[in-house]
Structure formats: C-alpha cells, structure tokens
Amino acid sequence: MSMETGKTVGVVDFIRSEPAPMGLFRIAPGVPCDYALEQASTVMGCVHKLIEAGLLDEDGEMMWAAYFLNEFAKAIIDDVGLGLKKA
C-alpha cells in the first residue's frame, strides 16, 4: 500500500469539550494521504513558530493557538493512519 493510494477516512475529530462529548471539527474523508501529511507538516511548522514566539514574548494567546493547531495536525495524522490501515 503506497501513500498515494490511501485516503483519509474522515472519522477523527478534534477540539473536544466536556459539555459536548464530540469534536467540533472532523477531518474530511477522501483526501489523499500524501497531501494530508504535507498539510499536517505545514501546520506543525506553524506550531513550532508559535511556541517559540509565545515563549519568548510570554504570550498565552500564541500558546493556545499552538495548542489547537497541534491538535488539528494530530487529527490529520491519526486519520491518515486509519486510512492507510483501511486501504
């Protein structure tokens, strides 16, 4: 199974809260895995820069932005993993 033939399954959600036991967002199904991983890598690059800037500036808002973007990237990667297992 190559990465080019795998597709996201669209079952992994993210940004969960206790009052709502489901995620606010979900990865779209049918996205090619190689493209999805490329986007996750781009998001993780942004997370790295936000953490660095947030720590240097002691900016909590940047740190929260990094937290949510990291959760988003993890959801992409987890959904890709499920898509590759399914294929």
UniProtKB/TrEMBL annotation:
<protein>
    <submittedName>
        <fullName>DUF3077 domain-containing protein</fullName>
    </submittedName>
</protein>
<dbReference type="Pfam" id="PF11275">
    <property type="entry name" value="DUF3077"/>
</dbReference>
<dbReference type="InterPro" id="IPR021427">
    <property type="entry name" value="DUF3077"/>
</dbReference>
